[in-house]
């Protein structure tokens, strides 16, 4: 006599046979998204050269000041900007680079012209033990010097024009591409090992 299948057993067997095979996609897809997300997250630069390389990346992918958004700056530099203490529409990020130098990024709105503005700068760190007229070590912010930076910017399609002040001295360059005009201003110093050779380092980069 052949065994008879009960109604419950037959139902379970039918459900097992008709169930689609597991492909693993449901588990792998979120992992892939997380991997992509993590690969896009950058950490803040730790050297002067790395900082300026991030600036070059920002300039390469921008057509106007409108591309210098808070979100884009945070993404490219791997930073988190905070609202400015005196202006809720402005944002700032600052971090110590060495014992002698800080670097700072500002995204702001010009209160007179009501236009967006951007400024990046290397700032001297204040020390109580500094002597009068004592200058910090400029080599710490001159790994990529002014001339090298400008040459790299020109390779991105920018043209340069000197910034001439009232006494006829050149105080930096304008760098232009499409609707983007950037002003780069230098620090000048004389190396201790060659006091007759004047070198220029990036002091400030702003959009005008």
UniProtKB/TrEMBL annotation:
Q: Source species, please?
A: Neisseria dentiae
**Superkingdom of the source?**
Bacteria
Q: Where is this region: Disordered?
A: 19-46
Name of the protein this chain belongs to:
Lipoprotein
């Amino acid at each position: 006599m052949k065994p008879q299948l009960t109604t419950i057993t037959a139902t379970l067997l039918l459900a097992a046979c008709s169930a689609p095979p597991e492909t693993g996609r449901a588990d792998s897809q979120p992992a892939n998204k997380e991997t992509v997300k993590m690969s896009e997250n950058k950490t803040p630069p730790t050297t002067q050269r790395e900082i300026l390389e991030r600036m070059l990346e920002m300039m390469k992918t921008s057509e106007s000041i409108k591309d210098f958004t808070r979100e884009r700056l945070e993404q490219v530099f791997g930073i988190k900007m905070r609202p400015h203490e005196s202006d809720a529409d402005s944002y700032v990020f600052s971090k110590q680079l060495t014992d002698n130098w800080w670097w700072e990024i500002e995204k702001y709105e010009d209160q007179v012209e009501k236009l967006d503005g951007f400024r990046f700068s290397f700032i001297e760190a204040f020390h109580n033990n500094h002597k009068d007229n004592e200058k910090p070590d400029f080599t710490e912010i001159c790994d990529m010097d002014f001339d090298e930076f400008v040459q790299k910017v020109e390779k991105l399609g920018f043209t340069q024009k000197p910034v001439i002040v009232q006494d006829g001295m050149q105080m930096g360059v304008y760098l232009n591409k499409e609707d983007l005009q950037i002003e780069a201003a230098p620090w000048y110093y004389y190396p201790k090992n060659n006091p007759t050779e004047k070198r220029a380092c990036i002091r400030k980069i702003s959009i005008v």
